Amino acid sequence: MTLRRRIAELERELQEAEAGHIEVLETHQAVEHIREVFNLASSLRADFRRVEDSWREADRALRQSIIGEQYHRGDIVERLLNDQDALLNTPEGRVFDSFQQQLRQSVELTAMSERLRVILSHPSASNALNRLQRHDLRWLVKRLVDESQTVLQARARSERDVRGFMKTGLAAEHHRVGHLLNEFLNLALKLDWQRQMIRKQEVPLPAVGVAVTGVPAIERLRFKEVDDEAEQTLDLSNHATDLTQIGDDFWDAFNGLDREALIQQTLQLLAKENRPVGLAELAALLPPAHDLETFAVWIGMAREAGIEVIDSQREFAELSDGEGRRWRFNLPTTGLESQALMDIDWE
Question: 267: which residues sit within 8 A by CB, 6+ positions away?
Fold first, then answer.
């Protein structure tokens, strides 16, 4: 299965690394990877600025809602929480949230700074980056921390506005609610609760609890405080488990198409055939376990290699599933050839 194979590959790579068998990149590969790291670092700062702009826009809309008096306090709080959730669900929001989690672990930041120093000390760093770019990469962690503080200040501004809005009318609302409760209790005290007709009289209010006949009627209306206020903390600790104890259903859920293995099997088959092979014939020679995904990979390989895929000319392939049912696939015409596919990097 795909997940088991990946675990085995990672274990093999770990064993090779512990044994000292580490593959060293060539000069052009090292230059390419260093530039890729710099581009990713630059995109991080751009993501943080987009998050800050989005938060400022949400803060502006929230201020307009408060000033316009179109929403009550519950709506304002709900809008604040919804805006924050929506922002954190964007790609740049997820990047920012992940970095905030790293900020809570100083070890992660230290490790990140150390990795950047190792990259900059590489002999190919001067060829990959100019002096200004190396300076930016050296101070990346500090600048990301500063950018994140700016974003947090924008978010805190919205929270302060909502807090002030909540406190402004809270006392008046408490007074109104208390006055209504006192009127309600005074009316309840004026009733003759000893009369059976009064107690059995229908009211438009539905029952909100079970009948407690042992308690006087008026006492049932009063607010009761819970005596046991012991706090129970949630157990959010991580628990490890043995992979051998996990059921087959868990592994079956990961039993998707192994794209890398399919590409290698296809290349080996085409090298053996040494001629153009159509999709239907390829499906007969290499029966797919995931039919639609397999055909999509083969068509993608043909287009990546520049092999013509003719949609106007069709061919058909018939396959059987695990339940014995036969399926017929209407496919475009093409011809995958080993010579055209062998020089492409399929990672």
Answer: 338, 341, 342
